[in-house]
Amino acid sequence: MHEHATPHTVPPVKTLQGTVAIPGDKSISHRSIMLGSLATGITRITNFLRGEDNFATMNAFRNMGVMIEDSGSVVTVHGVGVHGLQEPGDVLDCGNSGTTIRLMTGLLSGQSFFSVLTGDQYLRKRPMKRVTEPLRRMGATIAGRGNGTLAPLAVSGGRLSGITFQSPIASAQVKSALMLAGLYADGATTISEPTLSRDHSERMFRFFGADVETADTTVTVRAGRELHGQEIVVPGDISSAAFFLVAGLIVPGAELLIRNVGINPTRTGVLDILQQMGGDIVLQDQREVSGEPVADLLVRHSRLKGIEIGGDVVPRAIDEFPAISVAAALAEGTTVIKDAHELRVKETDRIAAMAQNLRAIGSGTIEESEDGMSITGVETLRGGSVASFGDHRIAMSLAIAACASRNGVTIDDVSCVSTSFPGFFELLAGVSRV
Ligand code: S3P
């Protein structure tokens, strides 16, 4: 829990009606600051996510000499070029953001200066060996707690050599860390993953003019090209839209139009899963924005049924399992989630957190397994008191469960919601009919 916990009670609603504009995609917002900084010329970013995680990335680059202006509607990055970053004068604080610390560790490995990365109490517990180990193989000098497996991490940048790395996990953070290091390595840096994780880095590297080749689940980056500043329009974050999708499905009579949502195929597992559960979700006005596919999503209350979830869809829905578990808690029959061990090392252990919290608000039988859980649905949830464990997505999942509960849900601390979705509670209240 944060030092100053902010408890919040979400009451049950009669129904949900209206239109929701989802804030910008977190992953794309991080990468737009990073590549904009490494480009020559100016990058203008609209619909940038003004969440704490993205401000951590922004501040890190400001601390390395990049001028970044934020007018409130447009973020302007004055790129310094691939070799233009300066040694930061202080420790870089990544806050709660795994994407910031892991991608920056890769980028900083190739600089000609020293830097230290740290984060909040949750981030300092998350595994870093998955990036430090392959980066060391590229020649990086990284020190850190537990022999470089936990932050704080100290990076003494230097010469890197490209490697061919077979990643044991489908992780966009691991892939992107090595891709960024690859911009500084001698020779080619090739990363293969067991199934394709989100490919925003590949798309954005290409958009900025980097030398990147993709084939199947393999990406190769070569150094040497100059990157050029771009105009970027960030699509709405499907991981944020997921809360309104599930809310629209579980609340009787609900109908919501969720506008401007990124539907990159490496991110749409949540749509496949909810539709397979019987969810009525219609994609409208499909279009492309800054190299990313976008649509409006129309969602209506639906009778859901339990399904089995595992395999390749898991990385395509990895951040949506807290919300999906709420849908499962109100579906007919049992939903089984497997192959999702990564959920145990997110902002918190999301399997344990959702199992405990769903039980606390009157769910049916829940069984945890090492790599997932099974959830048997009930007609309605009672409501009650729950714990966010400082995890934004746990807090928001329980807020939507509250909408469909009899008595409402009190969440012990919702301050974490601002890491990815500032304005979430106001948007939810705006479409709630009580
Ligand atoms: C992200 C990758 C995913 C995801 C996270 C954002 C990214 O993490 O869970 O919220 O922007 O690259 P992993 O790479 O650990 O799967």
TrEMBL record:
Pathway the protein acts in: Metabolic intermediate biosynthesis; chorismate biosynthesis; chorismate from D-erythrose 4-phosphate and phosphoenolpyruvate: step 6/7
CDD domains assigned to the protein according to its UniProt record, in alphabetical order: EPSP_synthase
Enzyme superclass (EC): transferase
Cited InterPro entries: Enolpyruvate_Tfrase_dom, Enolpyruvate_Tfrase_sf, EPSP_synthase, EPSP_synthase_CS, RNA3'P_cycl/enolpyr_Trfase_a/b
Location in or out of the cell: Cytoplasm
Domain Enolpyruvate transferase: 12-427
Transmembrane parts of this sequence: none
Residues that hold 3-phosphoshikimate according to the record: K26, S27, R31, S171, Q173, D319, K346
Active site: D319
Reactions accelerated catalytically: 3-phosphoshikimate + phosphoenolpyruvate = 5-O-(1-carboxyvinyl)-3-phosphoshikimate + phosphate
EC number: 2.5.1.19
Keywords for the protein's UniProt record, in alphabetical order: Amino-acid biosynthesis, Aromatic amino acid biosynthesis, Cytoplasm, Transferase
Binding site for phosphoenolpyruvate: K26, G98, R126, Q173, R350, R393
GO MF annotation: an example: 3-phosphoshikimate 1-carboxyvinyltransferase activity
Free-text function comment from the UniProt entry: Catalyzes the transfer of the enolpyruvyl moiety of phosphoenolpyruvate (PEP) to the 5-hydroxyl of shikimate-3-phosphate (S3P) to produce enolpyruvyl shikimate-3-phosphate and inorganic phosphate.
Family: Belongs to the EPSP synthase family.
Assembly and binders: Monomer.
Protein name: 3-phosphoshikimate 1-carboxyvinyltransferase
Species name: Trichlorobacter ammonificans
Gene of this entry: aroA
